[in-house]
């Protein structure tokens, strides 16, 4: 990944008495934010516009890609494997270098902010994997979600427990001991605790059973109907489009089709290529 | 990013350039007499000889680290293992020691090993922790019952001069090989346990075994007289005194325009140097050949991607154990050579900072994974380590010269030899930061 | 009566020294385990930084003594502790800024931090030598004993005496307070939980708005506090020799690993386990047995000592291996810093 990794190759990284690879991060936490910019008139609530870029100094993965979500709506990003769905999400969240394009949220240009400051600006992000603090209790996980808040978090905590009664019963248990579906609920709950203005989910249903998946989708719809815009990447294109107000089909890092979920479901080409007839 | 330059700049000229710089340094040390250099070939060659031994040690560490990525922080222990060999092999037998209790001692050591083997067998067969504990406890008392009286008897045998079991009186060069075997045996024992755990805990295990081996050497007087030191270990080369008594040698020295005393010192050091060079080159040759063989290719494959290698059915732990033993054997050989060069075994001098971590500085500075890098790094760092003791005070004296005389200045001047520790730390940190692949990077 | 005498001998020569030593090891292991959990490497410079911090305590103590400041019956060194912690914290923070932060920014593999800590170890070792030299130093000036042997004998009428040195009581007491404070901090405060969160999942902590650099700074400051306190208590209880601080690196690492690296509770348990085993294995039991089994004659010169005190490092090593063989993740698995 970084140059430094190449220095010793993989030497010594197996010796647990000297190194601790557990929970190691990938985001540079020392990067400082640049200034906020002005938004543009007529912008959607959140928009990543004409984004082009990739990881580090590597080749571009996104090519002039645009993703947007309006207030109170669900937008989904679908596409084949390796199309850059998660990358687009990470680009909006500031986890890779954009060579072109900008990200604007609620009338402000946040392209220069680092991920930490985007959280403070109102973005809630749930990564696809490693999205909980496994050794901390469910309640502590949620408290950590509210880390940036200085007001009383009790009401939000109750709201999250109301939304996910299954994890409410296990609030004192270590999150790492929960089942896959419950972990995802904790992960979404943690993001909700920041009281974000937009919720971004990276494949929230990856690796959970169909029943749990339906339940999660129900919760996500409930969140969106509550007024919180949701942007998510989904592997299960058909289900995702059924609940989407807006859907983006990405192919090789570029927008291939854009429209409401219903429109795309009726689009022959989309059906043929992604939905299996 | 500063580190990118490194990757690009691994030109084939690096090793020769570093080598040339080293050669210039040693020639300066031998010829120029000023506040920086001693101007004595005797000093220069003495540094070089010890540098060559450090280079062999660094080669051993580099085999473990460079080929397999094993982090050995018990180098001092394996050097000490090797150091025991000349004492036990090359020293003349001690009169009376055998009669005093050597057979009983050897029996007790065999019983000790037998108990460990029995414990292992009991565990494999029944998997009962308490049964193993019982075997170990009973075995321990049996061992002490045999061992203690034997030790008392041996140590009571002429304690002022001996009190140890003595050696076999064999040629000292043979003991270098045996030193390698001793270290290999210790490495096998520790590697078998530490590498067999669910994940590696090799670093802490080697740190522990290093301390233990040195503690044994310090405290078991029967073995090598402990802190009373062993002196007059036989030499594989001529003695200065004998050379000076040889009229032909004195005449030859005068022809060259040197005093017999100086020439004899240089002659002895050159003889040592040729022996060390033979060993060094042999080790490098074997190490390079091994690396290019199918075995070496497999080692590199394992190092680069352990999971893939394991999935392909390679016995990763077994290979790691192999290379750990081989590297430790090389370190053991260096340990035996060091004692031979000094003619003295002084257990109190076995300090981990000097014999473990300084070797690591050599390997990292030289270039992890590159044998020539390890050699050049070792000789360079050894030179700096020795000279820092001279340059440090000179530098402090220069810096403090404007200061008024007083307790602070006196304290600074007093402690200036300690500057070498700071200097070595800085060298390591700077290399890690700006040239992390070392002076001569791995190809 | 004989049973009581045996008990007193046991308390005097095994229990009390081991408890004090265990407290020192536990504090040291806590520092190692915190750095392992949050900065993700084993800090080889730990022992030498302890030596350096303790050297500052000693110098400040001497200064205070010269000024005539005293808090009898407590040792003056206690007063010097706070400024020494502050100075050491500044030193480790500067080290972090100059050395480790670069690699953190690069997201370098943890082994590089280990190598860098070896470099820092050399520098710290040299700094300590520059500051105070390599010789033994003393700083203990408080009351020597809370109970001494004679008073105890007169009080109880037993043959055997019990001595409780004030430094031993102080060590255990202070270590206890520090541990409680640390656990309260880690489990109850916002910053402490942020540290645990960062240890669990660095990226997610960042996405929750936790400033990683602040967590790292906090960790170094707490580690510096633990190092200076552990080092000073060790120096007060035994005596101060810089090289000893390098040597206790092994029992400290062993304690941290035995307890499960990254787990503070484990570090404490490991510290006491290692200390009690070391003392018990190297103690000559002949007097205790003499009281308990007067009919048994061990023979002349048999001290009933399992191992000589020189081999106390072997004990921590053997415990380490045994624990790792049977419980590969240490005594306390799961919960981390």
Automatic annotation (TrEMBL), chain A:
Keywords: Amino-acid transport, ATP-binding, Nucleotide-binding, Transport. It comes from the Bacteria. GO terms for molecular function: ATP binding; ATP hydrolysis activity; branched-chain amino acid transmembrane transporter activity. GO terms for biological process: L-amino acid transport. Residues 46-277 form the ABC transporter domain. Residues 1-43 are annotated as: Disordered. Gene3D superfamilies: P-loop containing nucleotide triphosphate hydrolases. SMART domains: AAA (SM00382). The keyword Iron-sulfur does not apply. Belongs to the ABC transporter superfamily. This is Amino acid/amide ABC transporter ATP-binding protein 2, HAAT family. The lineage of its organism: Bacteria, Pseudomonadati, Pseudomonadota, Alphaproteobacteria, Rhodobacterales.
From TrEMBL, chain B:
It is found in: Cell membrane. It is a multi-pass membrane protein. CDD domains: TM_PBP1_LivM_like. GO terms for molecular function: branched-chain amino acid transmembrane transporter activity. The keyword Transmembrane applies. Its main location: membrane. It holds the Pfam family BPD_transp_2. The chain crosses the membrane at residues 12-32, 44-63, 70-91, 103-123, 130-147, 167-189, 201-218, 272-291, 323-345, 357-385, 421-440. GO terms for cellular component: plasma membrane. It comes from the Bacteria. Keywords: Cell membrane, Membrane, Transmembrane, Transmembrane helix. InterPro entries: ABC_transp_permease, LivM-like. This is Branched-chain amino acid transport system permease protein. It comes from Paracoccus tibetensis. The lineage of its organism: Bacteria, Pseudomonadati, Pseudomonadota, Alphaproteobacteria, Rhodobacterales.
TrEMBL record, chain C:
The lineage of its organism: Bacteria, Pseudomonadati, Pseudomonadota, Alphaproteobacteria, Rhodobacterales. Keywords: Amino-acid transport, Cell inner membrane, Cell membrane, Membrane, Transmembrane, Transmembrane helix, Transport. Belongs to the binding-protein-dependent transport system permease family. LivHM subfamily. This is Branched-chain amino acid transport system permease protein. GO terms for molecular function: L-isoleucine transmembrane transporter activity; L-leucine transmembrane transporter activity; L-phenylalanine transmembrane transporter activity; L-valine transmembrane transporter activity. The chain crosses the membrane at residues 6-39, 51-71, 77-99, 111-132, 168-186, 215-236, 242-261, 268-286, 306-326. One of its GO terms (cellular component) is plasma membrane. GO terms for biological process: D-alanine transmembrane transport; L-alanine transport; L-isoleucine import across plasma membrane.
């Amino acid at each position: 990944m970084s140059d430094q990794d190449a220095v010793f190759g993989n030497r010594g990284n197996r010796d647990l008495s000297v190194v601790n690879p557990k929970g190691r991060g990938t985001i540079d936490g020392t990067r400082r934010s640049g200034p906020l910019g002005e938004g543009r008139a007529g912008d959607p609530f959140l928009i990543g516009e004409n984004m082009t870029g990739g990881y580090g100094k590597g080749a571009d993965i996104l090519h002039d890609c645009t993703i947007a979500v309006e207030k109170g709506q669900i937008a989904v990003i679908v596409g084949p494997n390796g199309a850059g769905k998660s990358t687009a999400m990470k680009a909006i969240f500031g986890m890779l270098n954009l060579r072109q394009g900008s990200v604007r949220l609620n009338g402000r240009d946040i392209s220069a902010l680092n991920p930490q400051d985007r959280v403070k600006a109102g973005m809630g992000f749930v990564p696809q994997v490693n999205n909980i603090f496994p050794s901390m209790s469910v309640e502590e996980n949620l408290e950590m979600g509210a880390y940036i808040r200085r007001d009383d978090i009790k009401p939000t905590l109750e709201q999250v427990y109301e939304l996910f009664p299954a994890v409410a019963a296990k609030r004192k248990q270590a999150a790492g001991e929960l089942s896959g579906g419950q972990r995802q609920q904790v992960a979404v709950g943690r993001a909700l605790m920041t009281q974000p203005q937009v919720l971004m989910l990276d494949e929230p249903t990856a690796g959970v059973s169909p029943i749990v998946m339906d339940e999660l989708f129900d919760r996500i719809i409930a969140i969106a109907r509550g007024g919180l815009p949701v942007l998510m990447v989904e592997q299960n294109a058909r289900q995702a489009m059924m609940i989407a107000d807006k859907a983006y089909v990405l192919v090789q890092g570029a927008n291939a089709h854009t429209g409401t979920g219903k429109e795309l479901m009726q689009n022959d080409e989309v059906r043929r290529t992604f939905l299996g007839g | 990013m500063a580190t990118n330059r490194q990757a690009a700049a691994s030109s084939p000229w690096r090793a020769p350039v570093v080598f040339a710089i080293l050669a210039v340094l040693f020639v300066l040390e031998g010829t120029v007499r000023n506040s920086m250099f001693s101007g004595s070939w005797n000093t220069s060659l003495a540094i070089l000889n010890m540098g060559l031994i450090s280079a062999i040690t660094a080669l051993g560490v580099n085999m473990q680290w460079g080929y397999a990525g094993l982090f050995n922080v018990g180098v001092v222990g394996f050097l000490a293992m090797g150091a025991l060999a000349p004492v036990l092999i090359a020293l003349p037998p001690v009169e009376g020691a055998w009669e005093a209790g050597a057979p009983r001692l050897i029996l007790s050591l065999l019983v000790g090993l037998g108990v460990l083997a029995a414990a292992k067998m009991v565990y494999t067969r029944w998997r009962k922790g308490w049964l193993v504990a019982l075997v170990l406890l009973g075995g321990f008392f049996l061992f002490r019952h045999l061992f203690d009286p034997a030790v008392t008897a041996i140590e009571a045998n002429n304690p002022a001069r001996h009190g140890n079991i003595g050696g076999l009186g064999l040629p000292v060069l043979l003991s270098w090989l045996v030193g390698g075997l001793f270290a290999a045996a210790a490495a096998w024992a520790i590697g078998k346990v530490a590498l067999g755990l669910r994940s590696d805990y090799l670093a802490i295990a080697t740190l522990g075994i290093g301390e233990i081996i040195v503690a044994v050497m310090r405290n078991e007087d029967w073995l090598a007289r402990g802190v009373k030191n062993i002196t007059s270990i036989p030499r594989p080369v001529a003695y200065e005194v004998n050379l000076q008594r040889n009229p032909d040698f004195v005449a030859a020295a005068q022809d060259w325009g040197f005093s017999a005393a100086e020439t004899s010192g240089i002659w002895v050091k050159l003889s040592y140097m040729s022996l060390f060079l033979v060993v060094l080159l042999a080790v490098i040759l074997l190490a390079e050949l091994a690396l290019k063989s199918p075995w070496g290719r497999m080692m590199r494959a394992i190092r680069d991607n352990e999971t893939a290698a394991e999935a392909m059915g390679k016995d990763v732990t077994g290979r790691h154990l192999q290379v750990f033993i081989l590297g430790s054997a090389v370190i053991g050989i260096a340990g035996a050579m060091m004692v031979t060069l000094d003619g003295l075994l002084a257990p109190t001098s076995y300090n981990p900072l000097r014999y473990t971590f300084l070797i690591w500085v050599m390997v990292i500075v030289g270039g992890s994974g590159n044998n020539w890098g390890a050699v050049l790094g070792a000789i360079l760092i050894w030179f700096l380590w020795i000279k820092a003791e001279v340059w440090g005070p000179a530098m402090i004296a220069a810096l403090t010269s404007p200061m008024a005389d007083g307790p602070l200045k006196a304290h600074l001047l007093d402690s200036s030899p300690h500057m070498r520790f700071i200097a070595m730390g800085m060298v390591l940190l700077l290399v890690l930061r700006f040239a992390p692949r070392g002076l001569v990077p791995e190809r | 009566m004989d049973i009581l005498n045996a008990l007193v001998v046991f308390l005097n020569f095994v229990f009390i020294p081991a408890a004090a030593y265990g407290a020192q090891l536990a504090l040291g292991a806590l520092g190692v385990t915190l750095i392992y959990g949050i900065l993700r490497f084993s800090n080889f410079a730990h022992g030498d930084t302890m030596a350096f911090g303790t050297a500052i305590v000693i110098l400040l103590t001497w200064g205070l003594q010269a000024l005539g400041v005293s808090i009898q019956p407590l040792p003056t060194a206690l007063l010097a502790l706070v400024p020494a912690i502050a100075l050491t914290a500044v030193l480790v923070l500067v080290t972090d800024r100059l050395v480790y932060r670069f690699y953190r920014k690069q997201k370098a593999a943890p082994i590089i931090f280990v190598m860098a800590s070896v470099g820092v170890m050399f520098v710290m070792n040299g700094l300590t030598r520059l500051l105070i030299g390599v010789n033994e130093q003393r700083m203990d000036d408080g009351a020597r004993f809370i109970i001494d042997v004679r008073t105890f004998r007169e009080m109880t009428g037993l043959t055997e005496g019990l001595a409780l040195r004030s430094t031993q009581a102080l060590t255990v007491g202070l270590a206890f307070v520090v541990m409680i404070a640390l656990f309260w901090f880690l489990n109850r405060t916002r910053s402490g939980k942020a540290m645990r969160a960062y240890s669990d999942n660095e990226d997610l902590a960042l996405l929750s708005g936790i400033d990683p650099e602040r967590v790292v700074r906090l960790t170094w400051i707490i580690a510096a506090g633990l190092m200076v306190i552990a080092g000073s208590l060790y120096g007060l209880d035994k005596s101060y020799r810089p090289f000893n601080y390098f040597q206790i690196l092994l029992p400290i690492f062993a304690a941290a690993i035995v307890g499960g690296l990254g787990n503070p509770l484990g570090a404490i348990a490991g510290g006491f386990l290692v200390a009690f085993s070391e003392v018990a294995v190297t103690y000559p039991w002949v007097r205790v047995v003499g009281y308990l089994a007067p009919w048994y004659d061990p023979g002349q010169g048999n001290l009933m000592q399992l191992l000589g005190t020189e081999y106390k490092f072997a004990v921590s090593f053997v415990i380490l291996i045994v624990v790792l063989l049977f419980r590969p993740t240490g005594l306390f698995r799961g919960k981390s810093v």
